[in-house]
Amino acid sequence: MEKSRLDYTIITDTFASVNGRLLEHESKGGAMLTELYRAHVGDWPKFFKMDTLSKAGFLASELLLKECSGVESAPETASDSNRGNVHGSVSDSVSDSVSDGAKRASDARCEEYVQSRAVVLFGITGSLCADRNYQETIQFADNYYPSPALFVYTLPNIVTGEIAIRNRYRGETSFYVLDGYDAQSMAFHIRCAFQDSVTDSVLAGWVDSSGNEDFRSFFILVDRGAAAAPGMLENEIMKIMDKLK
Amino acid sequence: MEEMILKLKQEIIEVLNLEDITPEDIDNDAPLFGEGLGLDSIDALELIVLMEKNYGIKLQDPAKGKEIFKSINVMAEYIQKNRTR
Predict the structure, then answer these.
(1) Strand, helix or coil at A173?
(2) Hey, of B46, B55, B85, which one would you mutate to test binding to chain A, going by the most A CBs within 10 A of its CB?
(3) Which 3 state secondary structure label does DSSP give A211?
């Protein structure tokens, strides 16, 4: 019987991994995001216009969805946890119903998910990085040229919109600004997304950027089964968050 | 004029973050919006800011942008005629 797991991706300013497999890259920080975009996505020029928060979230979501749908097998270099598990399962002890649901929810580009997939993200600093960048364009009276392109990213939930537009999702999108890493709160809000009659899966994650060169994010794909399994979501989130700290 | 067109293309590429585009890729007569470069409404606002910041041209009527931003050639001609810096 196939073991269950939540697929996940992690991107920080120094490394990126998909289900525990580190992705190859030569650069760090913002340049790393561009390098990974060119290597693994490459067909969404809007990426270059995004702020750092959106780039980190967008890229993490792309890598996860491609992994889930099998569109792309990311280059493998090493395990970020030395677990010796190719798939890097966060947990091997969840129910079979979770496994079935995860497989059903796996074809990320499938039309089926246009209506039924929600995007629920979390972070601490919100759009502070974009706010600072925009502030620089209006800081001096003799050089006062407010940038529309920077202004549009001065809301943290823009990253959820970028992901929804890319995938044509029309389900719920939310971005919660938390005081800190809080698996309980994240799991609670992810479960809340399933309370409507249309949501079958949630693309959830943590994305945070305190500077153009300083960011961290992780994404998971959660189905109803995973959300319903007692304590499972909290445990999975905590295990992934441990890799970010 | 050719020098100015090249400079304008470089400025547009930089301000609009068109990272995969080079000045040579931009046809002087191709539409900047819709087809062509496929720019959007936020890009249009950035071009208005670019004209004011770099050339001292303040568009009083943003709707005029539709005509001015028709192509690189049209934009360059407008800047040439109206620039204050």
Answers:
(1) strand
(2) B46
(3) strand
Question: Above 70 in pLDDT, residue A83?
Answer: no
For residue A160, give Cα distances in angstroms to A130, A134, A196, A241, B41: 15, 20, 19, 20, 20
User: ipTM of this model?
Assistant: 0.87
CA nearest A11: which of A218, A238, A167?
A218
Assess contact for A49 and A162: CB atoms under 8 A: no
Q: How many angstroms separate the CA atoms of B48 and A220, rounded?
A: 40
Q: What is the pLDDT of residue A56?
A: 98
Dmax over Cα atoms in chain A, in whole Å? 68
Tokens representing A50 are 């995004």
Q: How far apart are CA A41 and CA A166, in angstroms?
A: 12
Is there a contact between B19 and A146 if contact means CB atoms under 8 Å apart? no
Chain segment A11-34, per-residue pLDDT in tens: 999 999 999 999 999 999 999 999
What is the share, in percent, of chain B residues with pLDDT greater than 90? 71
Tell me which chain A residue has its CA closest to the CA of residue B18.
A48
